[in-house]
Amino acid sequence: MVSVDTAHRSAERAVRTRLLELQRATGLPVVFGGTVPGGGRDGRFAITAQVGTISDALSGLVIRRGRGLGGTALERGVPCRVDDYAAARAITHDYDTMVAEEKLTSIFAFPVRVDGEVRSVLYGAVRSGDPIGDRTLRQAGLVASQLQVDLRGTPTAGLPPVDDGAGDGTRRALVELADIIAATSDARLRERLARIHREFSGAPAAPEPAGDPTAEGPEKLTRRETDVLRLVAVGASNSEIADQLTLSVQTVKAYLRSAMRKLKVRNRTAAVHVGRAAGLF
């Protein structure tokens, strides 16, 4: 049986190796990242590997779920990118001091998912003020896919599997059911569905909603609708989005149709344009 320490060291080595490949593949001056213990169930991870940094500001930095760019990627499980970190409205600014010390401007954070859990987050950044393009993010996706394979055989920090022995099909169904629960406006139906989810997943409480609507204007999208648009924005196909979010292709299409309706546009390209203008990604 592989010890937790051995598994952790193996995962960290894989991250360091893939970061070097990420830098070579993208030409980015700065890349960094770390493994996510327990698939992020404790709500945080640390940056443990860096290439191209000019200070120790990022070394060992603990990133918390939902905070900053990496914490948002951890929470949502999708790539997140900002072209002007200091002015970005879609993230919190808990780590501005460290980012400023490294003189970083445009940054992306790419979560690496294994069996539905985020096991690592890879970052890429520039100091020039230039935006990071979609092609660069797609190249990062290829490296992330390689790291996904590396990590698939590495246990997570000694914690039990999320699904308690359920297969991939069951996990997909439970994730999709949680999304349906979050999108259901009928309170009685939502509670019945939540009870079914608890019975099949063994969870002690109802699943956390996939997203609350944002406060105003064209930004009134659920979290899942925003996640789908984030991936559309980097050129992902419906099947790639489905794999990344552990959904069916039909569910992805449904989220995309709903997002386009709310944004009052007729195609996915226009939806991405409006979403970017609204500061969603």
Automatic annotation (TrEMBL):
Protein origin, superkingdom: Bacteria
GO MF term list: DNA binding
Stretch forming the signal peptide: none
Presence of keyword Coiled coil: no
GO BP term, example: regulation of DNA-templated transcription
Biased composition (Low complexity): 202-216
UniProt-listed InterPro entries: GAF-like_dom_sf, Sig_transdc_resp-reg_C-effctor, Tscrpt_reg_LuxR_C, WH-like_DNA-bd_sf
Keyword DNA-binding applies: yes
Annotated ranges, domain HTH luxR-type: 214-279
Region (Disordered): 200-223
UniProt entry keywords in alphabetical sequence: DNA-binding, Transcription, Transcription regulation
Family matches, as PANTHER family: DNA-BINDING TRANSCRIPTIONAL ACTIVATOR DEVR_DOSR
This protein's name: Helix-turn-helix transcriptional regulator
Organism in which the protein naturally occurs: Pseudonocardia halophobica
Higher taxonomy: Bacteria, Bacillati, Actinomycetota, Actinomycetes, Pseudonocardiales
